[in-house]
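Input.
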Amino acid sequence: MPSPGRLTSVLLRRRLPLDTRFGLLRAELRRRLRPKTAYALRYGPGVVFLSHSDYAIDWESFKWAVADDAYPTDYDGAVVLDVGAHKGYYSAHALARGARTVVSFEPEAANLAFLERAAAAYRERGADWRIRASAVGGERGEAQLRVMEGSWAHSLHPPDSWARYEVGTQRVAVEAMVDILGETKSLLGDGSRLIVKVNTEGEECAIVLETPPEAWSSVSELFVEMHEWAPCTAAELAAHLAPAGFSVIPTEMAAVLRLRREAAPRSDRRSAPT
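Output.
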């Protein structure tokens, strides 16, 4: 659970809408006094959910994606691929910041259930939020997802040291990133921006390095969360994508590799008529 100081620091952030800050406070009080399976938290045009059983992790995940703005860019009018969507906090953040379409990829059943509930609430308000119940990798197929105690740690290839945290496995579909990028071109209008965020507990190397650089040519901006057990470095990912015109953009988040394609438009905003 968040410490009183951490909770207060988030509640004071003006980046968060006032009703979201009140919602975080209500969730914290409700969790202590009258626990529920999940706590609905209004954000943007809909709601997302903090689960009771994984409250501390969900709270930190929401803080990272929304309050900390770990993936900062201009989302207005963009199409967004959320690879490793967890319960949908980043997807909701992108929509709340003006994204036109968000496609979320999440294989784990419990996370997926909350993700679908959040997407349904957003769709009731007209948002285009699409869900794909799959993992993402370098090749299409099926795989065993190793399910951990903590909802943010499920992985196709976890480090050996995580064996003590494993609580089960799920057989999941795996989509190839090259196929996803090819399909997504149909969503892009003339000059539309495509933003991709990858947070897949070590699978980032296969996703990026096993996808040819030219397949990323429709992507304007890419955020990759790097994990210390991953079998590659951020520099290797950047070098792989350099032929497609990507360069590294500095970020305050040490774990996040941010890449921007130089030829891509910076925004989907259109100038106001004069």
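The longest helix spans residues 18-33.
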